Amino acid sequence: MKLNAVTLAILGGCELGLCHNVQETGSLEDMWGQDWPFTGIQTFAHLPHERCLLNTDLEFDVGIIGVPFDTAVSFRPGARFGPEGIRRASQRQTSMRGFNFRAGINPYQNWAKVMDCGDIPVTPMDNHLALKMMGAAYDNLLGRNSSTEKSTLPPRLVSLGGDHSILLPILRSLHKVYGPVSVIHFDSHLDTWAPTKYPSYWHSEESEFTHGSMLWLAKQEGLLSESHNVHAGLRTRLSGTDWEDYDEDDEVGFHRIQCDEILDIGVDGMAQKILSFVPKDVPVYISVDIDVLDPSAAPGTGTMEVGGLLTRELISILRKLEDLNIVGADIVEVSPAYDHGDITSLAAAQVAYEIITSMVKKGPIESSIVERNKNQSSSEAPLLQDHIERPRKVLLGPHGQSLEALEREQVVFDSQISLL
């Protein structure tokens, strides 16, 4: 019998072990439980997903929460689609291939239960209501127990924005647990502007809440550490004809590291400078505006500034902060509509992974650190009512504003009560 070429090829392949002798006797988990990067429902890094806000009995140690809110921006919108974009870009991360060679651990296969908590369904119709919704959601998530028996503190949250204004409700909720926190703020902008800095005659309570004023508002409410906060990666233009923006930033309580400094002191120097401002025995919050990166690495954002950090520089700096007591973090201002090939979302997903790694590697936050921080801050942190009742000339600083400017500033302070 003559065999044709096709038959010979098949027989030869079988001899080489290429025939499909598939074994279908494994467990269902073994056979169907693992996804390819392009399969499955898009949760962050293919992590287990729960709508955590609907299940108040659910316990976890690190939760990823989306905050699709972007109606407090001053330039390009679109960050409401950031959580979806970051999750999409995280699909090549899995628990199977999650070992972080920089840190020496796999954060997804360790002591911590890490999960995707879905999104906060924030209204885009009313910023005042949105602020209340975000606050209620964070109070909910931070009002429960973590899953590990080694901790008496709530789970830690990594928030996917959304514009940077989401930081204000986060800090409010964190304050109820930890007291004032130290903020490490990676950004090209200060975000410590008083609301009246924005050049508009028209003013309302809602207009005070923006992605450039939330740290100023947080200071007025006593949510920030008095002196252990730092900006890293600054390079934006300033207001007016002098250094007034920096004077007011000093009053909010921030140290500043310009992006250009990395040319002289390098990655190690920038990380060490951050650590010189932030002690290891205080609760620390890391906030990453993706526009801290150069537009060549992160074009998909709302307020780009040229001359930023490279992605590898930011990652390397973050890795050097892993000994801090990180109680929460956010990655914000990702606007996928302006992205190219998902490179901005990919950078944001990697930043989230690095921060999660640091949280897990450090282990549970010690309750003694929190108690010491609360006791120390109780006599130092200014109360909102104190700010409102203090004389205008003290509240507004030495810059000699006009009477009209003073009156507008007073409106800002008076409205703080209604924002709470």
From TrEMBL:
Keywords: Hydrolase, Metal-binding, Signal
Signal sequence, renumbered to the chain: 1-19
UniProt cross-references to Gene3D superfamilies, sorted A to Z: Ureohydrolase domain
UniProt xrefs under PROSITE patterns: ARGINASE_1, ARGINASE_2
Source taxon at top rank: Eukaryota
Listed CDD domains: Agmatinase_PAH
Any one GO molecular function term: agmatinase activity
GO BP annotation list: putrescine biosynthetic process from arginine, via agmatine
Family the entry assigns: Belongs to the arginase family. Agmatinase subfamily.
Protein name: LAFE_0G12376g1_1
Protein source organism: Lachancea fermentati
Taxon lineage: Eukaryota, Fungi, Dikarya, Ascomycota, Saccharomycotina
